[in-house]
Amino acid sequence: MLTIHSRLINALITQALNFHPIETCGIIAGPVGSNLPLRLISMHKETQPGSFPKLNPQRQLQVWKEMNERGEEPIVIFFSHPHCQAYPTHAEVESAIAPQSHYLIVSTESLNCDELRSFRIIDRIVIEERIQIVHRYEPELELQMVA
């Protein structure tokens, strides 16, 4: 189960709506081994005409290096799906590199963002999980949160 603060959910939905109808994505990092999402990092996809949107490799390397230096890992990897349901695409499943991460997908197809789903992707097997949205973390964790 993914437990995540409502401020982080609101921030990623806002990002998805601001970029609609273009796909967007990002990471919510947290301390290694904690399963606690704290810091939202936007990572926008580059789109070439007639091709599948891809992450900028330099930006991806920069984000991973920064997380490593801070003792963080990707707790949540999120995507927006502006033209389809909130379910991992074949390309997202194939590129899933963090089995410990929650893959959170918001569909902006209806612009209501009423479809928000979380998955674990391990060895190309997709497993849906529950999402528990909380309004408070422990006080010291609230101060560390960046949304």
Structure, briefly:
The protein has helices spanning 6-19, 57-69, 90-94, 139-144; strands at 2-5, 24-31, 39-46, 54-55, 72-81, 102-107, 115-122, 125-129, 131-134.
Question: Could you describe the 3D structure shown?
Answer:
By secondary structure, the chain is α+β, with helices and mostly antiparallel strands. It has one domain: 3-Layer(aba) Sandwich (Cytidine Deaminase, domain 2), CATH 3.40.140. 26% of the residues lie in helices and 37% in strands. The protein is built from 4 helices and 9 strands; from the N terminus they run βαβββαβαββββα. Strands 4-3-2-5-6-7-8 form a 7-stranded mixed sheet. A two-stranded parallel ribbon has the order 1-9. It is globular and about 40 Å long. 29% of the residues are buried.
Keywords:
single chain; 147 residues; alpha+beta; seven-stranded mixed sheet; 4 helices; 9 strands; globular
Ordered list of secondary-structure elements with their pairings:
Layout: E1 2-5, H1 6-19, E2 24-31, E3 39-46, E4 54-55, H2 57-69, E5 72-81, H3 90-94, E6 102-107, E7 115-122, E8 125-129, E9 131-134, H4 139-144
Parallel strand pairs: 1-9, 5-6
Antiparallel strand pairs: 2-3, 2-5, 3-4, 6-7, 7-8
The CATH class assignment is: Alpha Beta
CATH topology call? Cytidine Deaminase, domain 2
Judged by helices, strands and strand pairing, the structural class is alpha+beta
Oligomeric state, counting identical vs distinct chains: single chain
How does the overall form come out from the CA principal axes? Answer: globular
